[in-house]
């Protein structure tokens, strides 16, 4: 079965420290992977995607993600966290059936 | 370019009623997907429409249905509402018939069933 997992419901990090939000996938074939962010009472906003090519993908607001095929992971990272990064983050994968699979979300809190 | 719009933004219904939600995709986007978001379940895929045809369907009962019009606007209908249908319903659109194109989400419709 196709799926995306986010093993941490909650991540806390101090402002200025690096942050990592974890994601693992189980998608057949070559995976298409995405990260989205959701602020309170808003829809999801696209951050970045991996389709093919370089394993390190750079996206909006200074975020980046590293595709690791051997570990089937696509962790979201940022070198220096901001309080304004506090939000709900979703990892998603897509397969050849044109269907997207979302993780359950990770709530990130950046502590001033 | 205008983003994905959803109407209404908030809705309160009682059990047994039916409801119709509307989604207008970004201009030029032909794929529209619907998701149900609840605190405990995350985002659950309902269905996807592409060029007026349902292309994918999630694991929801037949009370949940949808359609897409020739201008790519989509509607979702839920009949015989249950308390458990209370959720944020998100619509997302994307361009091209390709996996490489990310989805863009609307702000959602918050449905409360009492």
Question: Can you walk me through this structure?
Answer:
The complex is a heterodimer of chains A (112) and B (114). With 112 residues, chain A is mostly beta strands. Helices cover 0% and strands 53% of the residues of chain A. Chain A has strands at residues 3-5, 10-14, 19-21, 24-26, 32-38, 44-50, 56-58, 64-68, 73-78, 87-94, 100-102, 106-111. The radius of gyration of chain A is 13 Å and the shape is globular. The mean pLDDT of chain A is 92. Chain B has strands at residues 5-7, 10-13, 19-24, 31-38, 42-50, 53-57, 64-68, 74-78, 87-94, 104-105, 109-113. The model of chain B has no long low-confidence stretch (mean pLDDT 92). Chain A binds chain B through residues 32, 34, 36, 41-46, 49, 51, 90, 94-105, and chain B through 4, 31, 33, 35, 41-43, 45, 48, 50, 55-56, 90, 92, 97, 99-100, 102-108.
Relevant terms:
A: mainly beta; 4-stranded antiparallel beta sheet; 0% helix; globular; B: 114 residues; mainly beta
Layout of strands and helices, then pairs:
The complex is a heterodimer of chains A (112) and B (114).
Chain A (H helix, E strand, L loop, with lengths): L2 E3 L4 E5 L4 E3 L2 E3 L5 E7 L5 E7 L5 E3 L5 E5 L4 E6 L8 E8 L5 E3 L3 E6 L1
Parallel strand pairs in A: 2-12
Antiparallel strand pairs in A: 1-4, 3-9, 5-6, 5-10, 7-8, 8-9, 10-11, 10-12
Chain B lengths: L4 E3 L2 E4 L5 E6 L6 E8 L3 E9 L2 E5 L6 E5 L5 E5 L8 E8 L9 E2 L3 E5 L1
Parallel strand pairs in B: 2-11
Antiparallel strand pairs in B: 1-3, 3-8, 4-5, 4-9, 5-6, 7-8, 9-10, 9-11
Helix coverage percent of chain A: under 10%
User: What value does the Rg of chain A take, in angstroms?
Assistant: 13 Å
Q: How many separate helices of chain A?
A: 0
Q: What sequence of helices (H) and strands (E) makes up the elements of chain B? A: EEEEEEEEEEE
| Averaged pLDDT of chain B | 92
Mean pLDDT metric of chain A: 92
Oligomer: heterodimer
Give the topology string of chain A: H per helix, E per strand. EEEEEEEEEEEE
* Strand runs of chain B, count: 11
Assign the structural class of chain B, choosing from mainly alpha, mainly beta, alpha/beta, alpha+beta, or little secondary structure. Answer: mainly beta
Q: Note the overall shape of chain B.
A: globular
What is the 3D form of chain A?
globular
The profile of the biggest β sheet of chain A is: 6 strands, mixed
| Number of H/I helices of chain B | 0
Q: How large, in whole angstroms, is the Cα Rg of chain B?
A: 13 Å
- Beta percentage of chain A is over 45%
């Amino acid at each position: 079965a196709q799926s995306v997992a986010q093993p941490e419901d909650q991540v806390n990090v101090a402002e200025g420290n690096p942050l990592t939000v974890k994601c693992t996938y189980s998608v057949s074939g070559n995976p298409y992977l995405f990260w989205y962010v959701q602020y309170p009472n808003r829809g999801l906003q696209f951050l970045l995607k991996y389709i093919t090519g370089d394993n390190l993908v750079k996206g909006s607001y200074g975020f980046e993600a590293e595709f690791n095929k051997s570990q089937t992971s696509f962790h979201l990272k940022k070198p220096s966290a901001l309080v304004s990064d506090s939000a709900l983050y979703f990892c998603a994968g897509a397969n050849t059936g044109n269907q997207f699979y979302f993780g359950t979300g990770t709530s990130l809190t950046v502590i001033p | 370019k205008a983003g994905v719009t959803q109407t209404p933004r908030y809705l309160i219904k009682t059990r047994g009623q039916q409801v119709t939600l509307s989604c207008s995709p970004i201009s030029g986007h032909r794929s529209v997907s619907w998701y149900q978001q609840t605190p405990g379940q995350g985002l659950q895929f309902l269905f996807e429409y592409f060029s007026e045809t349902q292309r994918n369907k999630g694991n929801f009962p037949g009370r949940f249905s949808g359609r897409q019009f020739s201008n790519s606007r989509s509607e979702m209908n839920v009949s015989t509402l249950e308390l458990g249908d209370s959720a944020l319903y998100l619509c997302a659109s994307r361009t091209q018939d390709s996996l490489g194109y990310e989805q863009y989400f609307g702000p959602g419709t918050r449905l409360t069933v009492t």
